[in-house]
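ok so for the tutorial part 2 we go from a plain amino acid sequence to predicted C-alpha cells. step 1 is just haveing the sequence, like this:
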Amino acid sequence: MAVARRIAYNVFVSSISKILSTILALVAIGFITRYLGTEGFGEYAIVLAFLSFFAALADLGLYPIATREISRAGADEEKIISNIFSLRIITAIAVFIISPIVVWAFPYPEEVKKGIIIVAASFIFSSGYQVLNGIFQKRLIMDRVAIAELVGKIIQVGVVILAVRKGLGFNWVVSALLLNMVVSFTIVFLLAKKYVRFVFKVDLKQWKSFLKESLPMGISSIIIFIYFKMDTILLSIMKGSAEVGIYNAAYKVLENITFFPAMVVGLVFPIMSKNIFINKAEFKNISNKTFKFFIVMVVPLIVGVLFLSEEIINIIGGGEFAQSAPVLRILVFALGLIFFGHFFNNILIAGNLQKKLVKILAVVAIINVVGNLIFIPRFSYFGSAYISVITEMVVVFLTALMVFRKIDYVPRAEKFSSILLSGLIMASFLFVFKEFNFFMLTLGGALIYFIFLWIFKAVKTSELLSLISRKGVEEYEEIP
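step 2 — the prediction. this is what the C-alpha cells look like for a chain of 480 residues:
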C-alpha cells in the first residue's frame, strides 16, 4: 500500500475507532453518574485522578523518546523496544507496590482507597501497551492500537452496565477500568510481537542513555499531572466529593475529546521529527496544515458547547448535575487551548527541546497549584475551571514563544477570518433556533459551519487531504 494511502486509511480507522471509544466512554459516564450521584461520581473522579498520578510518576518520558529513536535511520528497533518496554514494566510494578502507602496518607473513605489500589494495578497494563505504541506509530499503523483500545472500552462499558444494573457497587465500576487495560494490553502486545521480536532485557548502560534523554519528559509528565489533575485532588480535600463530582461531570466531557488533538499530532509527529532539521520547508508545510486543521475543529467545538452545555450535561449526568453546565462553558476554552498546547509541545520535542519544555511546564504547574489554592476556597469548582483556562493559555503562549525563538517557526493559517465568520454564522443558527431538538441543533450547526467554510473557500476539498498527500509524506520511508 502506498504511504499516502496507508496514512489515509490509518487516519480513517483510527478516527472512527476513537470516536466510537469516546461515545462508549460517554455512555459509561452516563451510567456511572446516575448510579453513583454527585458524591459517588466525585469519589470515582478522585480514583481516576490517582490513576493519572501513578501514570505521571512512572512515565519517565519513555514513549515519545522511544518513538523518536526507532523512527531514525539505522535504529536497532528490537534492542530499543526491548529495553524501554522492560524499564517501563519495572517502574509500573514499583508504583503499584508503593501505591497502598500513598493511598493511606489521604483522608478518603475505605472504598475510595481500595479503588485507588485497583487503578494502580490497571496502570501496569496501560503503561505496558502505551510504550509499545511507538512500534505502530513508526509504521503508520496506529489504527491497530485504536481498535485494541476500542475492544477494551467495549469490555469496560459492558462491565459498568452490569455493575449498575446488578447493584454491584463502587469498586466493580472501578474494576471495569482494570479489565479494559488488561484486554487492550493483551491485544497490543500480541500485535507488536508480529513486527518486533522484543524480549525482557536489562541493559543498564542503555537504560542510563535513555533516561538521560527521557527524564525531562518524565518530569514534564508529573508537572502535566499537577496542572491537569491536581485541581481534582485539591478540590476533594478543600471542598468534598460532591463538588468534585459537579466539576468532573463537565471535565469528563472535555477529557474524552482531548484524544483527538493528541491523535492528530501523534500521526504527524514522526514526519515532523524527520523533517525539522533536514527539510525545514516541508516541516513548516505539515505544521501549518495541522495548525489550520486545529482551528477549523476548535471553532465549532467552542461555539457548540457555549450554546448546548445544559443539554450535554443533561444527557451525560441527568438533572442532578445541572450545576455542571456553566462549568462546562468555562472549560471548553481550556479544551480549545489544549489543541494548540499539544501542537507546540510536540514541535519542541521533535526539535530536541524537551528540557526547555520541562521548564515551561514547571512554571505553569506552579501557577496552577497556587491559583487553585487561592481560588478553590472562595469559588469552589468555578475557581478550578477558570484556573484551568488560565493554565492552558500560559502553556500555549510560552511554548509558542519558544518555538518561534528556537526553531524559527511561526504557524500560519490561511482564511482565518473566514473560519471565524463561519463559526459566527453557526452561533447565529444555534441562537435563533435554540428551541429545536438537541440533536437537530448539533447536526444542523455542524452542517451550516462546514457549508460556509466551503462557500467562503476557507477549506478546499483537496486541503482536507493535504495532511496525508503532500510530497513530504509521500516520500516518507516505506517500513515493512
